[in-house]
Amino acid sequence: MAQGITALFVSDDLMAAGVLNALTDQGVQVPADFEIIAGNGTSTAHLTRPMLTTIDQPMYDLGAISMRLLTKMMKETDQEQATEDQSVVLPHEIVVRQSTRQ
């Protein structure tokens, strides 16, 4: 904050909760003075005060598709071909809650 940073993206909700606690301990008002966005949309985001704005991701689908791709790679004899064109984009969205300003 001394360097002028006013917002932070934290990839994990639990770590974002820790950042929120540390800021609160320092008397920083979230979101008035500092905004936080967390990255995986777990139930932790609902337990903090203020509740964390998060990127909601389909966690089950991430695991299932990853496992399917890994299994396919293990079965392929040509590893280069197995990893070709394996880009997968799953639906995701930002869920605005109380740790960011509107």
- What is the alpha-carbon Rg in Å? 18 Å
The number of helical elements comes to: 4
How much of the sequence lies in strands comes to 5-15%
Q: Give the structural class.
A: alpha/beta
- Helix percent band: 25-40%
Unreliable stretches (pLDDT < 50, length at least 5) are none
Gap from first CA to last CA:
21 Å
* Largest beta-sheet details: 4 strands, mixed
Number of separate domains: 1
Order of helices and strands: EHEHEHHE
Could you say which overall geometry the principal axes of the C-alpha atoms support? elongated
Mean pLDDT: 88
Number of E-type strands: 4
Strand order of the largest sheet: 1-2-3-4
Keywords summarizing the entry:
single chain, 102 residues, alpha/beta, 4-stranded mixed sheet, 4 helices, 4 strands, elongated
Structure description:
- By secondary structure, the protein is α/β, with parallel strands linked by helices.
- It has one domain (7-95).
- Helix content is 38%, strand content 15%.
- The chain has 4 helices and 4 strands, in the order E-H-E-H-E-H-H-E.
- It has helices spanning 13-25, 44-47, 59-75, 79-83, and strands at residues 7-10, 35-38, 53-56, 93-95.
- Strands 1-2-3-4 form a 4-stranded mixed beta sheet.
- The longest helix has 17 residues, at 59-75.
- It is elongated, with a radius of gyration of 18 Å.
- The model has no long low-confidence stretch (mean pLDDT 88).
